[in-house]
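Notes continue from the previous slide.

Worked example: a multi-chain complex. Inputs as given:
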Amino acid sequence: EAQVTQNPRYLITVTGKKLTVTCSQNMNHEYMSWYRQDPGLGLRQIYYSMNVEVTDKGDVPEGYKVSRKEKRNFPLILESPSPNQTSLYFCASSLLAGVSDTQYFGPGTRLTVL
Amino acid sequence: SQKIEQNSEALNIQEGKTATLTCNYTNYSPAYLQWYRQDPGRGPVFLLLIRENEKEKRKERLKVTFDTTLKQSLFHITASQPADSATYLCALPNSGYSTLTFGKGTMLLVSP
């Protein structure tokens, strides 16, 4: 089944404890991205990747890192999480290197930082 | 960057009626615009893409219009059903077509 998977789906952690949220797609998509969604603020892009080894900042990159060593994986790293990073996170991918076609979203990761 | 406005108030309609949602943007007119559906706690799901040279696009009970002069897209659901209750998001690409900016969405509630 063609899909975008994220792990974990739920995570409660404490301030400063490094964590990684994984994202994987099995559709051979070029483009992958991370969003966070907060009440009243909507979906905001954190980072995106046009292809392997090519990443760039979105609208809210502070406090996050990403890597794209393989085409299918695009992990989101929080080196020192803070309470303001409590949010619902979505990974997305699309076939082409850009946003000119359908974005496929993962199921989301709900992160709470205490 | 693009600023997108969607009605923040929920739209309540009765089953069988047509729902009309609005997406207004303020800056440049992109080559296309997308609409997504999102259910609570779940990822957005793509519905339709409309290009600047397409005044109207249809898919089953869905219809989208794109007016680059007004900088507006309208999203219609005809013969609405309670299962159509969700939040609907419009999304526009940036000028380099490297990122998508999403509107905050409009919640649609269809009552039986």
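Summary box: The interface with chain B takes residues 4, 33, 35, 40-43, 45, 48, 50, 56, 58-59, 88, 90, 92, 98-108, 110 of chain A (CB under 8 Å). The CA atoms of residues 29 and 95 of chain A lie 4 Å apart.
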